[in-house]
Amino acid sequence: MTQSDADLVFLPWVQRGASAALLQPDTNGADLPGLTTATASVEVNSARTASTPVTVLGPGHVTGLDRRQIVRMDPAPGATAFESNFFPLVELDEPALPWLFTPASASADGHLRPWLCLVVVRQQDGVRLDPPPTGGLAVLRIGAPAKAGDELPDLADGWAWAHGQLTAKTTDDLTGILASDPVRSVSRLLCPRVLRPDSSYVACVVPTFELGRKAGLGQEVSGIDESRLEPAWTPGASTVELPVYHSWTFTTGAGGDFQSLALLLRARPLPDGIGEMEIDVGESGLLSGVPPRTTLPLHGALQPVGTTPRGWSDPGLEAMWEQALTPVLNAPAQVTAEEDPLLAPPLYGAAQAGLESIEPTQTARWFEQLNLSPANRAVAHLGAQVVQQRQDELMASAWDQAAELRRVNQLLRQAQLGERVASSLHARHLERMDPQTGLQVLAPAQARMLRTSTALAEQFAGTGLTAAAFSTALRRVARPRGGLNRRLRRVSPTPIKPTTSLLVQLQPVKVMGRIVAGGRDTGPVTLERVAAGFGFDVTWGEATDAEVRATPQRAFFQVVPMGQPVPMGSGPGDPGVPGSPGVDPTGSLVLSDSAAAALFRDAAAENLARFNPPRPIEGPSQLPDGSLDAVFAEFVARTAPQVTFADRSRAAFTIPGADRQDDAALDRVELSPYFPQPMVEALSEIAQGHVLPGLDLVPPNTVVALETNTTFVQSYLVGLNTEMGRELLWRDYPADLRSTYFDRFWNASSAPGRAPDIDRIDSWGSRSLGVAADDEDFVLLVRSELLRRYPDAIIYATKGSEERHPIFTGGFAPEVRFFGFDIDAADIDDWHIVIQEHPSAPRFGIEVGTDTGGRTHLAPAGPDAALTARAVRQLPVRISIPATVLMRSE
To answer: Is the predicted pLDDT of residue 292 greater than 50, yes or no?
Structure first.
């Protein structure tokens, strides 16, 4: 009998080999013999020749278990939070192993006791797992005050808690899969123990028969013992000693599994005060006239969906504050070089903005919005605090990034010297050369330059010159100051024309011009040239099948062997000779092909139709005559030392930041360090309440809809970058203070490739602080024991067939997690949030809250082991929460 669940088929038992030939059905009692025999026979050519009884090994022959047979344990060894409503299990590689040494076959109702089982015993006084003696097995001892009958399952139900499993469908050839595809089959032992929460247990694989118990303990097994199949223990036993084939320990967690904890989640309305806190600006020390105990709201990095930022309740107080703060912030910019420096509050982002002072009229610019707002300055100061507290580790990381900086700058200085010398030589010699001479000089570098530029290769091909024009031999012969030219000048009575114009003479246009002008009889043999040699006026265009068929009839055409005279018949003007070719019996002239002419015409026409088929007449192609001067000018530009040295430096050094142009490629490197880590974690360490103010007001088992606060994120990161620049300057680090060292706030490790949370600060220009604040990301916050117990749970958003997974995640100890999605918080209504248990190998147990009647072990849940396995299997759980439920305010 088999039972299927999805693509898993559970088998109540599996027997193969000698055990499959046993005929005595299992009675589930002690009346069976503990040792049995079978008949083995030999067949030759389908004829049975001999039979003999053989003894089949039984449980009394087993003294150990190969540990390689253990392929999976649940819970894993050492687990500390196993669900108390689940059943511990162990999986074995061989699907027939649990019944291999059972001396019986299955009963009519599909029951077959395994020879080993899994027991789970609570660690307590009276329970010991003694180490194995030399060459033996470990021993599980249960004695007072513990009771063996309470700690061990009833062996009468042992048939129900061992089963086989195939990855297949019931319509597949299960026998064939068992025989040929071992990776798709396992056997499994379950222990139906009712576990207590927060308790420690030891799980052991032990024998189920007395024969196996004695053999495992090293005791003598007599013939009397082998005559009966006694169980290894009885339900009423108070003490017991069992050999242990395999064991491990684990601890259960608090009550509840994934399903029960997930069902506790509720979307509750947010209490007042979530997402913002009050800051006191009345005691700032400024002579602003702002009354004491004047407060402003400071919004956190996360805030309720649809939050409208609040500011000053009285615009007049805001104006008074800004008028008092502006001169204080601008005072350092008014100090001259002869005066002592002035200590003043920092201007956050000044280096990146390229500004030294506040302009009160620029009310829409981020620089003023950040530095004049008490709330935004407070957030930026949080970033400065992070750098101040982590300055040593941040600087250590910066110097690690600049480990090769000194050596790189030394090599760049050497490259600058080389570039200056090469530029002088390039200008004095190569740039002044005649283009054709210069192309010959640059011939060794020609192939490399043509490979790196398709446009240059096409321009060079337009000259029509081949590689032979730049061969070593030709260059040696043609050099103007070469030995050949010098000797010719000495012996020639007339001036020798210089070879500087050799290349242009090799261009196809010049070569063809000389051939035409010289009138030499060169070129391929053509039909026209052959015909002209014989005095015939025949052109290639006439030698076609159509022309042959259209020629006049040849009444006197004949074909005779070579060397014989051609007979001449009467011509078209001499009728009257009956029997002559072209003359009928009456003597009249007939203008039609002779038999030979007709055959020749057909043969010639068919031959020409294949040999010279009709083709469109193409005009003569344009001979390439590209300008050598233009090609040389491009070669000169590409070999300019400013270009070549810059390319070489870029290939030799990997310098972070934007690519440096040719004119700056050899400049001294001011390496700006980069820190890719998410800085929300650093903020949580010093001021967790600023990530989500009022978090302690969120009750347990709650899911909350939130959104990001871009203004907060940008203010915080500007503060980080400003303080980091000041620290780098103080530590004499060669960095560009305009750089953006930190650009990530959220932990986006779950979404590799996601863009940073801010772009380069020096590119912000005159835009407002909080750009993209109208398109804040939706964030799901979960406060529950669920995600602490199941950190690998899968959470995603779905709309129809579309799925979106979190682009950033985070959390707060001990049980708060949040998940950000690339979904506009204003458009979340059409989405559902899915919380799903991570799929895993099959697990078994009972529902939380099931009444077990005070028993320590459960009874079978089905009529056989396969149906029992299906009944107690726990499928992965998934819950879906409509976003509209999260958005309710009541």
So the answer is: yes
